[in-house]
């Protein structure tokens, strides 16, 4: 389905992102991976443009224009063929479709009558001992359960999980797998930005973080995309020690722009007992990791 019409400025921005994305993905695919014979030494890694064009079944000039971000019409079939040629994963493929102008429009319409999120709040609070929170399209907290506020000591409306992670070093050290968490956060934020191509706030947030966080800047320039709906999160709590969760994210048709995140204590660990102990001792006043 064709995306909704965009302004000339937003179209230029989308094509710029498309150019960078195609170049970075092409550089990561070797000739051997796609069955091409590598007979000569190359100055740069990855596939050449003519090789991607051949694999996708399109003209070299046409693919060059596409990668240069020229204003050309791209069919869904060509997007799919280029995705195959570059060996794109699921959400990378979806991201390319969006940049090429073939994204289904995000469900629009008025929010439910309980504009304050009464139903969603009841759902979030219903997760009991498992921390849960709701974030908006940018990763800002809208609702946090009592267990989430007690465990993480964060949950004020408007707190941005991404910004806190990359601007507060005391947050990052809570995560033994900090590099993996950072990579996933940035890839997810880029995927979110593609869902709302007309919204300049994503670029403003990314621009500020790009200036203030070298780590974010390096990851953002990689142009990776992902939607980590389920990930293992290891969190080192200053009082409870190491806890291991399955971090699960979900979307609701009633709240299409929001994301519900739940931390489920992994079985065969003592994480649930540690969380209960913190809750029973009113740990919400203690310093804890940010919600990421």
From TrEMBL:
It comes from the Bacteria. InterPro entries: Cro/C1-type_HTH, Lambda_DNA-bd_dom_sf, MLTR_LBD. Pfam families: HTH_31 (PF13560), MLTR_LBD (PF17765). CDD domains: HTH_XRE. This is Helix-turn-helix transcriptional regulator. Residues 120-276 form the MmyB-like transcription regulator ligand binding domain.
